[in-house]
Design goal:
This protein is α/β, with parallel strands linked by helices. The protein is built from eight helices and six strands. Strands 3-2-1-4-5-6 form a six-stranded parallel beta sheet, sandwiched between helices.
Length: 224
């Protein structure tokens, strides 16, 4: 497993930067709050059941879809739960926050002419809500949602389809993501430089162990 520490000199060999959205550029608190606190409240109101019962029912439904594209699909969940997930997310967008130094990091990448790719499992409608709210919509050379491939990033099929859609050399690519399963697939697909975040959700404890080098914030790896 890749455990090589990232060095400032590594930037000399990198041309492409692949960045995850939630838990990497944006605080995962928003999504955890939305799916595990706010949505059970809305579900309990709609079906006139207790919050605890709503929470229990949703957790059962969630577990059945973890690791599939449906897990990330608001169209699926809107139909499954009888709620307009996009509208509800938009109504809670004030809770969406960008991690410290993200803007400075992206600005420095652009000034140094690195190719910046947003590579995310987020649904296109959710991407639009989040990028508009955070003013990050013009920061990327290319945005790839796994929904366009019909499979999530934690599958080999995704990486095969990605290589067919965009041209990149894995040996000249840095990938930053918070999900161990996704990072493993990136490693399997020969991405040379891989990093993960220590605290994807600011409301949860800092992670102390990972198979990949961890960063606390983007100032730690800012290109010179």
């Amino acid at each position: 497993m890749a455990k090589k520490k990232f060095k400032t000199s590594d930037w000399d060999h990198i041309k492409n930067v692949f960045l995850d959205l939630d838990g990497t550029l944006l605080d995962l608190f928003f999504d955890n709050y939305f799916w595990h606190q706010f949505l059970p409240e809305e579900y309990s109101k709609k079906f006139n059941i207790s919050y605890s019962e709503a929470y229990k029912q949703l957790q059962i439904k969630y577990k059945k879809k973890i690791g599939t594209i449906d897990w990330y699909c608001i169209d699926y969940w809107s139909k499954e739960l009888g709620l307009d997930i996009a509208s509800l997310k938009n109504g809670q967008k004030h809770r969406i926050t960008v991690f410290p130094f993200v803007r400075k990091f992206l600005s420095r990448l652009r000034k140094r002419n690195y190719k910046i790719f947003l590579i995310t499992n987020a649904h296109p409608d959710v991407i639009r809500i989040k990028l508009k709210k955070t003013w990050l919509e013009h920061e990327f050379d290319h945005i790839v949602s796994s929904h366009s491939f019909g499979v999530p990033k934690e599958t080999s099929v995704f990486w095969k389809k990605l290589s067919e859609q965009i041209t990149y050399d894995p040996n000249e690519t840095l990938f930053i993501d918070d999900s161990p399963g996704v990072l493993d697939k990136a490693h399997e697909n020969k991405i040379k430089y891989i990093l993960t975040t220590k605290q994807p959700d600011s409301s949860k404890p800092i992670r102390t162990k990972s198979d990949y080098p961890m960063i606390s914030n983007f100032i730690e790896i800012l290109p010179e």
